[in-house]
Each structure stands twice: as structure tokens, then as C-alpha cells.
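Pasting as-is:
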Amino acid sequence: MTIDFTPFFEKYEALLKAADEVFGRVREEYPHCVKCDEGCSDCCHALFDLTLIEALYINHQFNRTYQGRDDEKAEVVEKANRADRQAYRIKKDAYKALESGMTEEEILADLAKKRVRCPLLNAQDLCSLYDYRPVTCRFYGIPTAIGGKGHTCGKSGFVPGEPYPTVNLDIVQQRLYQISEELVSVLKTRYVKMSEMLVPLSMALLTVYDDEYLGIDHPDNEKADAPNKEGDANE
């Protein structure tokens, strides 16, 4: 691969560090409300997507961590394949529901109830790449807001309607897109909208992010919107 992702990974890691600090402060202030503990894997079954920088980062850390551990890696890849098929079916059903007349709010509420086991969740109900887990995982268990609507883990002790420090995930998502856009700007890729892509963690583990996939070093090719591969973007 011709691009050095290090500067962009460092920006992303700074965001991860900030997320951990926020979670730590809320947990310290509300110790009886934050129920997260080792072995609790409720968040590891939530359905969510990753931005480009997150997908590249988790893919890099996965391949680095499992280098020389072929059997273990193959087991995770198989779990990722199963999870990705589940996620695809769920999103396909959501798209059909939208076409049938369901509102976006109703569909999002239904998607929030769906459960897909993360391929990185091992037999001990622990994350195999805990130190490199996505931002979404790091905020799970404390109050968050998306589009002005509050959310929190159902296992937490936070009382609905009560005022608590709340993480605005829209701002976090904007920062993730910003880092992804900065990366795409130096890739000189023909996929000019690659920074807008969202993929499940399972697809991020399965994808080979080589020059061909990223659309670089192909000066004779015309620009396109994004890689035309199943799972590369939301349905």
C-alpha cells in the first residue's frame, strides 16, 4: 500500500482517548448508574456502522494483532462472515420497510432492537481487540444523544428524563467524517465520495484495503462515486 495512514490513525486515536476520558468522568460522577463491567457484552450485540477511518483502523489492528495466528484469525473471519450476512439481511428488510411506507424514525427504532453478535466477542464474552474498539463502543453505557434524542444502555441506572452529562454523538460523527475526508483528499482516489462510506465492523474485518480497493494509482480510470462492492455502503 502506498499511503501512510499513521497521521490519520493518530488523529483518530486522539478521539478515542478523549472518548475514554469522557466515559471515565461520567463513571466517576455516577458510579451507581454506569453498570459496565468485564463480562457484560450487551453493547457487543448492537448494530452500528463505521466510518472510513474507523474501518481502516480496526482492519489494520486486526491484521497486526492476528499476524502469525492463522487459526484464530480464520475463526474470527468466519464469525465476521456470519455477522455480515445478518447485518445485510437486517438492512435489506429496513429498506423494504422504508419503501412500504414506514417512517425513518420507526425504522431506526426497530433497528435499535436488532441484535448481531460482534465477531470480535470471544467465548469468554470479552472483546478480542478491546484496546482498539470503535468510538461507539467506548460511549455505550453513558447517556448519549443523536439528532437531539437521548439514549442510554438499558442495563444502566440512569433514570429517563433526569438531567445527566450527555455525549452529542452527532459532533463525534462529524469529526470522524472530517478525518476520513482528510484521508481521502491525500489518497488521490477515483472514489471521490469514499469518505461518506459506512460499513459494519464485520465488513471492515473482511475487506482487503489495498490500492485497488481504495482506487489509487489508477490514473487512467475515470472518477467514480465509491467502490461498487456489496456492503461498502448502507443500503
